[in-house]
């Protein structure tokens, strides 16, 4: 038996960091949405008691360090499953990019293995379990558009924003989420207006969404990597409606309404940056 699951990347339309908590994590308030750049996860039932991870990407581990492996192991241990699974990851989302690629793979494995092993766990319980793997996994279990609080694991669904083009550009550097949070100085940091972003989404108002994008972590990554600022400038000059770094970076995204402008931004970055993508915002849940 084989199951295919799509694991889409996310962008943070807004990301506010409120304070550092006693457990070392930061209390955040975010608005996240999925875009049509996705890994493809192929799950094959194994009768023997084993979890195998395979991928052609040289950037992801093929062992228990892989978040996809951890997701299958968590379900296996929690529900005392004796069967196994082979997980093949077709990696299309750039790694360590701020696009939650690993988290989305883990979420896809939770959804897919739930079916493969016939566990009948509902989506809310899968999302709860996912938070043990990483802060972004709960959101990725649902996909779509959501307001996320706590350390990111408390997820409330929002309507889909008006669909638009999203141009993504990742400079050739990897960024550690942990070090970005560690380097954040909350005194004087920028705080987006999450409430205004939610209202803009609820009103289906593209211009207001563009006005309200903001990310408290952006200043940290910008100060460490000048390439991020260069990409932002270039996207603005080429006519983006909104420009922001996603998550802890270093990927920068622009939101664009007009096809021709999206293409112009893509073309202007292509020679300068190897990893550039032009995709649609998904915005709605594809999971059931
Ligand atoms: C930057 C974002 O991607 C935005 O969506 C998330 O906040 C990070 O989510 P993630 O990659 O799933 O993060 P985790 O794997 O849970 O944590 C990685 C590291 O980031 C820091 N971290 C993460 C989330 C959070 N709310 N506060 C933190 O301080 C912690 O040092 C943690 O050790
Ligand atoms: N399935 C996976 N795909 C990508 N990276 C993985 C995976 N499993 C483990 N990793 C490890 O996780 C680290 C972060 O990768 P990932 O691509 O998820 O980062 P990210 O997009 O910055 O995440 P986030 O936006 O959630 O902070 C990498 O160093 C990688 O080795």
Automatic annotation (TrEMBL):
<dbReference type="InterPro" id="IPR036554">
    <property type="entry name" value="GHMP_kinase_C_sf"/>
</dbReference>
<dbReference type="Pfam" id="PF00288">
    <property type="entry name" value="GHMP_kinases_N"/>
</dbReference>
<keyword id="KW-0808">Transferase</keyword>
<feature type="binding site">
    <location>
        <begin position="94"/>
        <end position="104"/>
    </location>
    <ligand>
        <name>ATP</name>
    </ligand>
</feature>
<dbReference type="InterPro" id="IPR004424">
    <property type="entry name" value="IspE"/>
</dbReference>
<dbReference type="GO" id="GO:0005524">
    <property type="term" value="F:ATP binding"/>
</dbReference>
<feature type="domain" description="GHMP kinase N-terminal">
    <location>
        <begin position="66"/>
        <end position="144"/>
    </location>
</feature>
<keyword id="KW-0547">Nucleotide-binding</keyword>
<keyword id="KW-0067">ATP-binding</keyword>
<keyword id="KW-0418">Kinase</keyword>
<dbReference type="InterPro" id="IPR020568">
    <property type="entry name" value="Ribosomal_Su5_D2-typ_SF"/>
</dbReference>
<comment type="pathway">
    <text>Isoprenoid biosynthesis; isopentenyl diphosphate biosynthesis via DXP pathway; isopentenyl diphosphate from 1-deoxy-D-xylulose 5-phosphate: step 3/6.</text>
</comment>
<comment type="function">
    <text>Catalyzes the phosphorylation of the position 2 hydroxy group of 4-diphosphocytidyl-2C-methyl-D-erythritol.</text>
</comment>
<dbReference type="InterPro" id="IPR006204">
    <property type="entry name" value="GHMP_kinase_N_dom"/>
</dbReference>
<dbReference type="GO" id="GO:0016114">
    <property type="term" value="P:terpenoid biosynthetic process"/>
</dbReference>
<dbReference type="GO" id="GO:0050515">
    <property type="term" value="F:4-(cytidine 5'-diphospho)-2-C-methyl-D-erythritol kinase activity"/>
</dbReference>
<protein>
    <recommendedName>
        <fullName>4-diphosphocytidyl-2-C-methyl-D-erythritol kinase</fullName>
        <ecNumber>2.7.1.148</ecNumber>
    </recommendedName>
</protein>
<dbReference type="GO" id="GO:0019288">
    <property type="term" value="P:isopentenyl diphosphate biosynthetic process, methylerythritol 4-phosphate pathway"/>
</dbReference>
<dbReference type="InterPro" id="IPR013750">
    <property type="entry name" value="GHMP_kinase_C_dom"/>
</dbReference>
<feature type="domain" description="GHMP kinase C-terminal">
    <location>
        <begin position="197"/>
        <end position="273"/>
    </location>
</feature>
<feature type="active site">
    <location>
        <position position="10"/>
    </location>
</feature>
<feature type="active site">
    <location>
        <position position="136"/>
    </location>
</feature>
<keyword id="KW-0414">Isoprene biosynthesis</keyword>
<dbReference type="Pfam" id="PF08544">
    <property type="entry name" value="GHMP_kinases_C"/>
</dbReference>
<dbReference type="InterPro" id="IPR014721">
    <property type="entry name" value="Ribsml_uS5_D2-typ_fold_subgr"/>
</dbReference>
<comment type="similarity">
    <text>Belongs to the GHMP kinase family. IspE subfamily.</text>
</comment>
